[in-house]
Amino acid sequence: MAKNLYPYTLQPVPFEMSQDEQRAAQLAIWRRTNKISNKTWLILGVIVALAIIGLVLVKNYSTIAFWLMLVGVAIYLLVRRFGLEWYVKRKLNQEMIEDIKG
Q: Is the pTM higher than 0.90?
């Protein structure tokens, strides 16, 4: 009886993947694993909170340091989001990938 339950699993499955499909799959896997950790979010949140408190409490030219803190967080997030993806795409395009046929 068990023989008849899943007969389709024993059939060969044709599998072909082009280079573009492989690169797209690798990029999708990288995007899924490239998440910012909770610890990093906590550190960024503390920096932003301190910068906002500093902007509210401190006046005149001393606020430059707090503005730089906010700009630094923004630059970090932009580089982390777009810069790393650009770098990974570039490295994936440099790799030699063979078509998978089977």
A: no
Residue 50 has pLDDT above 80, yes or no: yes
How far is 58 from 42, CA to CA, in rounded Å? 24
Going from N- to C-terminal start, the domains of the chain cover 37-96
Which helix (H) or strand (E) segment holds residue 94: the answer is helix 84-94
Q: Using the predicted structure, report yes or no on whether residue 6 has a pLDDT greater than 90.
A: no
Cα–Cα dist 100/19, whole Å: 8
DSSP 82: I
Q: Provide the Cα torsion 83, 84, 87, 91; round to 10°.
A: -170
Rounded Cα distance, 52 and 36, in Å: 22
pLDDT of residue 3: 54
Interatomic CA distance for residues 13 and 26, integer angstroms: 22
